[in-house]
Amino acid sequence: PQGTTEKKQRWNAGVGAYLTWQIRQIEKELSITEPVSIGGEVGEVGGSNIPSDEAYVAEVRVYLTMLQARLVQYDPSAIGISKVSLNTGSAHGGVMGADGTLQRNVPIGFGIHAGVAKIENPWFPGSKGFVTVQHGASTLAAELFFAFAGANVGEVHLATEFQNIIWAVIKVQDPALYDVMRERLVSAPKSDIPSALVKQRAKNPAYAEDGKIKFLGDKDTVKCLPGILDNMRELATLPDSVYNAIVAALVAKFEDIFVRFRLNQAGTQLSDSEAAQVAQIIAANRRSAPATTTTGED
Asked: 91 — alpha (psi -120 to 50), left (phi > 0) or beta?
């Protein structure tokens, strides 16, 4: 919806409050004592950014205030959300440049993360603030991961890269199988894809680099294509050599991610030199992003 911030967030906050209340009701029914972590989202990931970091953070505050007011109407004792997904410039499956190539160096709104992370969470007294969520990070330059850690980003979505690693290994280890599996997805007619995803597939039918197959960078698109069940059977019965190669590649990726996100540092604070490095990465990311880069659709 267009118009005032309140008008834009009314539906978002209302639906979020209702779903949150439903989840808390289920927790009671199942005697779950530890609250399930629930997230909201402000701004469509992959869509247009709000003009400034400050304006974005202000809109998140409005959304949270409205959500809290609506949730109280359902149940004054209900615990609300703990994290917020933010549209900071990335897109699921990657951001495509004007020339159609995948952009690794995308200007990310780290200031949005920092601002939202400082908002006091009324449902979790004593917490440092809201956990912020970064979508579409798989295709970003790897050095940005350390900056996410330094900006206290609590959740980063990376599934696309894991999927691409699996495809890349199969292509090398068993080219014939790769061609069969890829053809099942590539040849699917548009009529077999839900209408909401047709436009996205037309925009970016497959990655150009390395022949990796990934419609729109949207896993939901791939899941609804004919032939996906056949591909699932193929994946479940891979030869040991292919399976072991996939595991080795994923383990190497996980180890690299753990270091870059400082998950091996047991929550220790950044040193002065590390903080300076984070600031340098963020500044370089802002300066060097290609001017022709456009945000892809979610």
From this structure: beta
- Taking CA atoms, 236 is separated from 232, 240, 271, 284, in Å, by 6, 11, 45, 43
CA distances 258 to 13, 81, 162, 233, 272, Å, are 34, 26, 14, 31, 21
Task: Record the pTM.
Answer: 0.77
Strand partners, 134: 86, 156
Q: Choose among 163, 195, 174: nearest CA to 93.
A: 163
Phi, psi (deg, nearest 5) at residue 83: -145, 155
5 touches 58 (CB < 8 A): yes
Three-state DSSP class for residue 247? helix
Torsion of CA 84, 90, 93, 99, to 10 degrees: 160
User: What tokens does 199 get?
Assistant: 């436009």
Distance in angstroms (rounded) separating the CA atoms of residues 93 and 95:
7
**Beta carbons within 10 angstroms of residue 100's beta carbon:** 9
Q: Which of 4, 5, 16, 123 lies closest to 57, judged by CA?
A: 5
Q: At what angle do helices 240-260 and 159-173 cross, to 10 degrees?
A: 150
Q: What is the mean pLDDT of the chain?
A: 80
Q: Which residues of 32-64 are buried (b: 16+ CB within 10 A; e: fewer)?
A: eeeeeebbbbbbebbeebbeebeebbebbbbbb
Q: What's the average model confidence in pLDDT over 266-274?
A: 82
